[in-house]
Amino acid sequence: MRIFVTGATGWVGSAVVDELIAAGHKVLGLTRSDKGVDQLAAAGAEVHHGTLDDLGSLKSGAAKADAVIHTAFNHDFSKFAENCAADRRAIEALGETLQGSGRPLLVTAGLGFAPGRVGTEKDPPMPTSETYPRASEITAVSLVARGVRASTVRLPPSVHGHGDHGFVPILIDLARRKGVSAYIGEGQNRWPAVHRLDAARVYRLAIERGAVGGPFLAVAEEGVPFRQIAEVIGRRLDVPAVSLSREEAAEHFGWFGMFAGFDVPTSSEHTRALLGWQPQQPGLLADIDHPAYFGG
């Protein structure tokens, strides 16, 4: 297949591009920079110039492809609501192009909504709110009713690997600046996790199925206690791992407090059975307990 990939030079998207090409697919990768052009060319992908805000470019890329994988998202959390709105518009533009064609669209989303229990693929998308305005999966679901073969790959809070610039590096930076590696209460809230290379394989297997049977959960570990993450960071930085009250955590973590308090244990049993997927890369604690995560 010829697959149009947005976010093709990003943390997840670049791994997806490599996975697709290794499996014999052709990739049309979206990029806006000269550096991105070089990166995609080196990977063996075809370059498509554009941005998430250039809806015409997104539509023309989708029109040239047999399938679309949308991994792009602007993770500048100082403009989170604005970036969520841009993501929604991008998904709608891709869907408009694919409508009625039978060509599949895979959209990247967060985990579903399963308060007080282990989440599964059957859970509804995370509801939008003032504090969580991201509507990636809700938008993808709305496209299905309009004749788009759309589904989602749900990613856990940590998509890890050496070179990571996501949630764990944020925690490491906080610990460096504040002299403590913090967790909330007993630190038993759980973060599901997946290595980026294992996640990339879920995208490839799901798109080869025509995005049928989703949502797909790219979750390798059901839930790693947050305290254990904080303890690895503390040991590596030689700072204490400390418990904070909810009030203290709000000051310590700031805008990141909502994510630090996530307790979202999630099973990917159905995805594994459906796609024949088994994670092969190191787990979260083993992966971050490495100098690569700490500038070494």
Describe the structure.
This protein has helices at residues 11-22, 34-43, 55-63, 80-98, 136-144, 167-178, 196-208, 226-237, 246-253, 257-260, 269-275, 284-288; strands spanning 2-6, 26-31, 46-49, 67-70, 105-109, 150-154, 158-160, 181-184, 190-195, 216-217, 221-225, 241-244. It is of the alpha/beta class. Helices cover 41% and strands 18% of the residues.
Task: Going across the biggest sheet, name each strand in turn.
Answer: 3-2-1-4-5-6-10
Q: Share of helix among residues?
A: 40-55%
Order of helices and strands: EHEHEHEHEHEEHEEHEEHEHHHH
Structure class: alpha/beta
Characterize the main sheet. 7 strands, parallel
> What is the strand content?
15-25%
Compact overview of the structure:
This protein is of the alpha/beta class and 296 residues long. 41% of the residues lie in helices and 18% in strands.
